[in-house]
Amino acid sequence: MGILFTLLITSFLVLFIAHVVFLGVNVFFWALNGLDYVIEGNSFIEIIYYSTYLKWLGLFDLVWFSFLAIFLIKRKQYKTDSNLHYLEKNSSREPKICVIIPTFNEEQIVKSVIDDYSNQKNINEIIVIDNNSSDKTVEIAESCKARVIKKESNKGLADSVIMGLDEFLKSDSNIVTITECDGTFSGYDLEKMILYLDNCDMVIGTRQVQVLTEKGNQNSMFYVWGNYILAKLIQIKYFSLSNLGIVELTDVGCLYRCIRKEAIEKIKFELLDKDAKKIRNNPNSGLIANFLTMIGIENNLKIVEIPITFKKRIGVSKTGANKKLKAISYGLQFFWFILTK
User: Fold this and answer.
1) Which structural domain, as residue segments, surrounds residue 263?
2) Is 72 helix (H, G, I), strand (E, B) or coil?
3) pLDDT confidence of residue 27
4) C-alpha to C-alpha distance for 338 and 291, rounded to whole angstroms
5) Distant-in-sequence, close-in-space partners of 114: CB < 8 Å, separation ≥ 6
6) Of 44, 107, 123, 208, which residue is most buried, by most CB within 10 angstroms?
7) Which 3 state secondary structure label does DSSP give 117?
8) 213 shares a domain with 320
9) Neighbouring C-beta atoms of residue 255, cutoff 10 Å
10) In terms of domains, do 171 and 236 share one?
11) Which positions fall inside the Glycosyltransferase 2-like domain (predicted)?
């Protein structure tokens, strides 16, 4: 089914471009020779209607819709196991939350972020995974009583997150929270996120609700629509005809999430496979949030996305995602990963 999904999406894009080009070319030639066509008694619609190219496009459209029908039929009962994909009450234990905070040269904000999460309920441990900062990030984090793991080189965000999850599995905490150290996320949202874990395995934040965002944050219109479209592409990939899909997503790039320990145990081997290593070995990869969501779905984790508050970044972006060309590059990475994972 993964191959069929990839073929459907790529062929759709090719057909869409072919239709746009066909229409554009015809409009162009009509604009140049419209008077001659009128004298000859041919209208614009007739020229298009009798075009051989249009007939070929129509044939390819018909083939595409046939494969779409096959995809939909095969997805009629996709992920509809009553024990795995419907309402279930998880055992209610007292939450013991481990907060993972990846850092790299965050001396300006690290204390504020650690204090924010330390002041929330049920915090058991805060682990700072530092990417070999050259400023005072480590010293400040240690002074805030966080457990700091210092790496010898900057291996990027994905490596820090996976390392943090490994440390979480060794601890006595039963819930892990993954956040960022740029001041955009708030510990205030933890309480409402944790509540949903009574009925699911992973709760992901979405930054798409305007009234919960601070004006001037880094999610410009380009990012808002890009994240939304790619999130819907994931929904289509895991589409179920009976329930419109196993998950509802609007923000593919949001790392802020809470996950039950049993869920991490279930996907821990996926964190060591070739896809994870490829992401982990690329310091500039922005795929970790996307990766965690998709392996969660594929391993039958129940995932819920809820609105969170989102503030302006403090400091500079360490990934360069604030630059348009870099953002386009990340978007293409996300798109290809969703197609081929």
Assistant:
1) 97-340
2) helix
3) 74
4) 9
5) 101, 126, 128, 141, 144, 146
6) 208
7) helix
8) yes
9) 20
10) yes
11) 98-245
Residues 162, 277: one domain?
yes
Both 55 and 114 in one domain: the answer is no
| Structure tokens that stand for 4 in this block | 């069929």
Domain shared by 24 and 140, yes or no = no
Please indicate, yes or no, whether residues 122 and 48 belong to a single structural domain of this protein: no
User: Token digits for 144?
Assistant: 């805030």
Strand, coil or helix: 187: helix
Return the structure tokens found at 155: 């291996």
Q: Give yes or no: residues 135 and 28 share one domain.
A: no
CA atoms within a 13 Å half-sphere pointing along the CA-CB vector of 165: 26
CA end-to-end span of the chain:
12
For residue 230, give the H/E element and its range: helix 221-237
Contact 4, 70 (CB under 8 A): yes
Across the chain, the runs of DSSP E, i.e. the strands, are: 97-103, 123-130, 147-150, 175-178, 202-206, 257-260, 303-307
- Choose one of 74, 107, 126: the last residue of a domain: 74
Collect all residues with Cβ–Cβ distance below 8 Å to 232 and sequence separation of at least 6: 249, 250
Q: Report d(CA 201, CA 263) in Å as an integer.
A: 6
- Mean pLDDT on 288-298: 94
Q: Pseudo-torsion of CA 252, 258, 263, 264, nearest 10°?
A: 90
Residue-wise pLDDT for 156-188, tens only, equals: 899 999 999 999 999 999 999 999 999 999 999
Smallest Cα–Cα separation from 129: which of 107, 159, 108, 109? Answer: 159
Q: Which two tokens stand for residue 322?
A: 């604030």
CATH of the domain at 144: 3.90.550.10
| b/e 180-206 (16+ beta carbons within 10 angstroms → b) | bbbbbbbbebbeebbebbeebbbbbbb
pTM of the model: 0.86
Predicted local distance difference test score (pLDDT) of residue 289: 94
Q: Is the pLDDT of residue 43 over 60?
A: no
